[in-house]
Amino acid sequence: MADRVPSVAELASELLDRIGEECSPAERDVLQSLASGQHSHVHTGLGAPTTGERLADKVARVGGSWAFIISFTLILLAWMLLNTDVLKHWGLVFDPYPFIFLNLMLSTLAAIQAPIIMMSQNRQSQKDRQDAAVDFETNIRAELAIAQLHRKVDLLLDRADVEPDGRRG
């Protein structure tokens, strides 16, 4: 015997303990897909990343690592050492203290790197939102399956005339 597919309102009442109008749009979408018996297509993916997106991900991965911080610190120290002591003997100092050119380069790097890292973070948050939507749908589906199993067990117990504590009625 085929099970009757419950309506969206019935699912909302049964699974979420509220009426359909109180559900969020995401909850309604999941309940609608459950009522129709089809999986919703929540996880459509982000598609193949563009060259710019791949570059942003690499910049974020490298720029947020200890290897970058340590190597960049060593480069800055070498720059300052060269421009204060080493090149001073030959009169070749190209960026004397207070290192104005170095400050300009650091400001330029920060101005370019920050939005690139933000692009990568935006992509990651979009992935996280999609994963959360898939997890939500999975949880609702699991709740429905458990509720259906409870109904079937209750039906079997009623047919066998057994009380919920296991005693015969």
Automatic annotation (TrEMBL):
Pfam families: DUF1003. The lineage of its organism: Bacteria, Pseudomonadati, Pseudomonadota, Alphaproteobacteria, Sphingomonadales. The chain crosses the membrane at residues 64-82, 97-119. Signal peptide: none annotated. The keyword Glycosyltransferase does not apply. Keywords: Membrane, Transmembrane, Transmembrane helix. This is DUF1003 domain-containing protein.
